[in-house]
Amino acid sequence: TQNDQQMAQVTTSQETSAPVVAKKSTNYEAELMSRMSSVPENNMVNAGEVFTAWDKELNKVYKLLMSELPESQKTKLRNEERAWLKRKDKEMDRAAEEMAAGRDENGNLIGCGTGCGHAERAMNIEMTKERTIELARMYDDLHR
């Protein structure tokens, strides 16, 4: 009928005038955790290896996000990342200070031994891991 033809024309014009871009759903976080399952648990022997693995993943997902975000959100993420790096440095210093006997007149940690370095490295790894997972979730949210 003529009414059916008009409805078909309306439907067709609506479909072509507003293209829908389907976002590919991802589960980056699950893929990340699967990849990182082969990284050994952190201990004094392999702390460098563990940190390097998490840092590599953090940089990878950060670059992915930056490649897909609109300019205003890129600026926001860049500022968040800079603030996170400052927080991480403070937390690493705090962790080392808790292991120290105090600070000298120049502000340097004293009576530290290997404990301070280990505490600092452990905090670095933990915060890098947490931030990597947080960025992976952001990436997944972007694709939902």
Could you describe the 3D structure shown?
With 144 residues, this protein is mostly helical. Helix content is 74%, strand content 3%. It has five helices and two strands, in the order ααααββα. The protein has a two-stranded antiparallel ribbon with strand order 1-2. Helix 2 runs antiparallel to helix 5 (113-142). The longest helix has 30 residues, at 113-142. Mean pLDDT is 85; it is low at 2-22.
Features of this protein?
flat; 5 helices; two-stranded antiparallel sheet; single chain; 144 residues; mainly alpha; 2 strands
> In terms of per-residue confidence, which ranges show pLDDT below 50 for 5 or more consecutive residues?
2-22
Pairing-aware structural class of the strands and helices?
Answer: mainly alpha
Helix content: over 70%
| E-strand count | 2
- Calculate Rg over CA atoms: 24 Å
Number of helical elements: 5
Q: What's the end-to-end separation, in Å?
A: 41 Å
Could you describe the largest sheet, including whether it forms a barrel? 2 strands, antiparallel
What is the approximate shape?
Answer: flat
Q: What order do the SSEs take from the amino end to the carboxyl end, as H and E? A: HHHHEEH
Mean pLDDT: 85
Give me the side-by-side strand order of the main sheet.
1-2
Could you tell me the strand content as a percent range?
Answer: under 5%
